[in-house]
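subagent[fold] <- orchestrator: predict structure for attached chain, return tokens only, no commentary.
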Amino acid sequence: MSHSFSHSTSNSTTPPPPAPASGVAPEAMVWFDIDNCLYGRSSRISELMQDRIRAYFRSLGLSEEEAGELHHQYYKSYGLAIRGLVAHHQVDPLDYDTKCDASLPLESVLKPDPKLRKLLADIDRSKVRVWALTNAYKTHAHRVLDILGVADLIEHVVYCDYARPNFPCKPEVQFYREAMEISGIADPSKHYFVDDSSQNVVAAQKLGWNAVYFLEHDAEQVEGQDVEEDRWKRQSAVGDAPTIGDIHQLRQVWAPLFKQGAAGEGGGIDG
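subagent[fold] -> orchestrator:
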């Protein structure tokens, strides 16, 4: 199911895939973030990634303290650490990808997810197209989709093209606008989006997308990530956007987008 590689696109130049064989393309889009959205934070991939990013900072001659501070500063200012590294340290973004994202031991951390596969398969493709919208580079995005066993159910991936000078990323409005352009659907109200970042959700909302905030909660949660006070602050940041604690709750939030009679796991919705 690696054929999805032929469907990937940089977020500006490649046209969208052809319409279905019926010749009638769905008139709405469903966009899934990938990391910490299609798999749980309890995988600790975020922690593994942070370790590699800080090691990359240190390889530039920075101290551990400087690495931590700049990592946080660049993420806050640019949306991605690599954006700050390119702007201020003239690093090769593809070298960064090789040593950070591409070096993650994903195959030993993630595994095929039949429940996620059923969720994606139950979305009514006569109504919507199902694409991914990620700040990762294409190599990482497709590795995750392949390992989870859902690559054939994500029709297209719009990713951050590290090889493109000054590439945009979430939560920048340019990234969402380019995604809309690639999809060929100009009406923002026809775009449905789920992400685990409140900043990304708010940006999509402002553009007119139907955004859902995925604020995961389960028994396997990483220690320190499920503090109630912190959860309340993050949930408040997205205003009236629906907040879900389990990705399968999309069945309730986006019920009209699923096949009639499709059954699956779900639960209550926050907000």
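orchestrator: received. Logging for downstream: The CA atoms of residues 16 and 203 lie 23 Å apart. The longest helix spans residues 45-59.
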